[in-house]
Amino acid sequence: MGVIMVEAEKRFSAPLHRLPSLLLFLMLLVFNCFDDLGCGAQKLVEEEVTALRLVGNKLGKKWDFSADPCSKTAGWLVPASTKAFASNVTCSCNTTTKICHVVSILLKGQNLTGVLPEEFANLTFLRELDLTRNYLNGSIPRAWASLPLTKVSLLGNRISGRIPSELGEIITLEELVLEDNQLQGSIPVALGNLVNLKQLTLSSNNLTGELPDSLGNLTNLTDFRIDGNPISGKIPSFIANWKKLQQLDMQGTLMEGPFPPTFATLESMTEMRVSDWKGGDGKFPPLQNMKSMEELVLRNLSLSGGIPDFIGQLTNLHVLDLSFNNLTGAIPSNFEDLQEIKFIYLTNNKLSGTIPDWILTSQKHLDLSYNSFTGTPAPSDCTGTVNLVSSYSSTDNDSIKTCLRRNLPCSGKASNYNLFINCGGDSVVIDGNEYEADKSTQGISAYVPSDNGKWAYSSTGDFVENEDESYIATNASVLNMIKPELYTTARMNPLSLKYYGLCLQKGNYTVNLHFAEIMFTDDQTYFSVGRRLFDVSIQGKKVLHDFNIAKEANGTGREIIKSFTTVVDGTLEIHFQWVGKGTTVIPKQGVYGPLICAISVTPNFKPDTGELSVGAILGIVAASCIVILLIIILLWLWFRRKNAANNELRELELQTSCFSLKQIKAATNNFDPANKIGEGGFGPVYKGVMPDGSLIAVKQLSSKSKQGNREFVNEIGTVSALQHPNLVKFHGCSIEGNQLLLIYEYMENNSLASVLFGPEENRLKLDWQTRHKICLGVARGLAYLHEESRLKIVHRDIKPTNILLDKDLNAKISDFGLAKLDEEEKTHISTRIAGTLGYMAPEYAMRGYLTDKADVYSFGIVTLEIVSGICNTRRPKEDFVYLLDRACVLQEQGNLLELVDPSLGSNYSKEEALQMLNLALLCANPSPTLRPTMSTVVSMLDGKTPVSIPSMKHINPKSEELRSESSEKIFHEIQLQSISMDELSVDTSVSVHSIEECPHHSLVSKHHSDYTQ
User: Fold this and answer.
1) 54 with 117: CB under 8 angstroms?
2) In the chain, how many domains are there?
3) Using 50, 70 and 90 to split pLDDT, how confident is the model at 781?
């Protein structure tokens, strides 16, 4: 019953007992109709219904508009909402006017895949917007600033770009949660205007710069989190203004100490997590007045000196983490008074003295490993709820158990020489090696040796937010690998995980670490937006920093094996450590920290096994020689039978995998025409599906083209040596008889040409951040080819059809059939011109003068196309020869921004657009000497190097037309010459559809239509 019902009951309570029961029932029904939503008479205003339709279209949310959005029916209000899931639209209705307005939208855990809609701004009464855990992209619309919002949560999406300063105009805002996205730039000064703000959560983004002083105005703040961002600067003193602050999380940033003395005034603090900074004075923060403190994490802050006694007076503490510091002295005696404590982590310090008896008999979880304790009697065991591994300073005192001593010395003869561990899983045999089971569930503060004594692990940390408290991960993604047995499980840890190889023979070893990201998925759900980052050290030396398994393996559910060599004399230590970075609540709270699937350690020397006699060894050697000789003879006979057309292939040193023709036929359904996705000059391109479900693109070389054979040799020789996130990944090849095949990764979003200029069904509306990301990706790929790879390579054919886009619209360069190695000499004259007119540098098209600056020119043209949405090779009206010509004219007129694609509207940064256009003109300078290198281009796009304004004179149409005709003539002559020499250039792009550089069906804005006619 509503308020009106209650008032009616009061008003009519006296005479009600005299009314017939039927009349009483009807009156109650009538009164009940005046509840918030009425009896169907109240209705949402039409303007907001229209806004919801637009919002639903952009979000990919299928609402049922046959029912009124305020009816609480037909899916507009789902009663079974949880902390992780909600699908609710809530209205406020005027019972007099019967007009309703949307005041709250909760769409949590919906896996929505659309773009963040600007149209929310049309819901002018909206106070709460929660889009937690979806797959939304785009940037935060500035138009939202007009709304009377009190709560905004975009946690767990793919939102990019900067935090708009306009959010500082929403002075009603009390909660702003932008955690686990891809936001960049600095925190806007304008956020300091949000004086009613209680919660500001910016964790796990890519925010930079220092905390603005204006945040000191947020005196109502109770929860502030910036962990997992590269924010720099010192801890600001204005934090003392936040008297109501209860939770502070600053883990994994680039900030520096010391803590300001004013910290002592934050008496309301209950949770404080600060970790992983450098610098400071090593002093403890003044926490003595924080009597309500329940969780205190001061990890890896270079704190020195003794542990202050006031820590033992914080009697409400549940969690205390002071690990990885330089603390000295004894454990304070008043720690025994911490009755509420559950976890104490003091690992990796320099604590000394005797370990108190109450700790040795405690049933709570304590980690004192890696310290310098002394005294007797020493504990008799290293296992239990107290982790004491390597906690004593002694290395040779036989009265102290081996596992307690520093560096875990071997108590007997070092007889082991290899290790194979299936971390978190059962015993399994792979390639003849038995990977031992590792199924212990201990992990909070534990030292767990193997049954055979060959290895052990030490685990520190608790997934406080995760009630499961599981330290073994099980596969949640599709495993795209040939031998998945090692990757169905993994051991994980929220802080520090160490594996030890015990009693290993002295010598040089190869350590293989087997990783696969099995807790995130690779689909379009919020399960795929998680990021796991951690460090790896071997024998105390860091070998991997901010290691991201999924990024290194090019996706989830894919294995990546990292190999290292190290010298071992007794004990091998492999350390996996979380340093506060990456996401922590995707797909649920408590999913972060290091994860390892398997470990193998093999000797690089002849181990002392004590088993084989000299005669047996000689017999094995002799037999091996005979087998090798037979193999050599068979290979020689096989190569002799190959036809002469494959000579070049035989001489090529392939650095790639080989597939059988049978495998490829199965993947493409015997090259079914239905799977054909393109046609190059050498032959068709097919889409294939491997047995594990992964998609591939297969280039099939035509058996009629000797030239295609040469292109095949060139391309396979080039790409097999290249591995970079912005190059299309080369999986391998197949060479059987006359069948020559290249196998690449499949690119879901086709080519840049298709996205910008293709038919309507292939085009995508690219926002400004995505265009910038594509330019930066192409630049990084070219910088790798020119300057970073072992082979210095000039691509020679950079154009939109050779830039492919994956499912996240990351740009990847393809088609190395025309690529040329940049040999010893820095420049050379090419007698064979290869490329595409409109994108070829003038010095190369006219004179055959080829350097890596030719690719820089092509990049400049492509950048102009990306910003403008106009194809360079479509000739417009006679005023301009082509897009570059028009750009030069607009630059001279000071109207360069007229070139920006009108479809962007106002949703782009004019400053960034002008910088990118100037950079494009700088790259397209007629003089190759004045063009920047690609590494400089990357630095400019990253904002690390300013973009100078290029000086380019307007190109006269007549002279340019003559130059184009001359270029075409030269190109035609070289083509004729190349045909006679079987050296004709071909387009070997791999994409979803084969299209022209600028398709006739391009749909661009009417303002630019003259460039596509």
Assistant:
1) yes
2) 5
3) very high
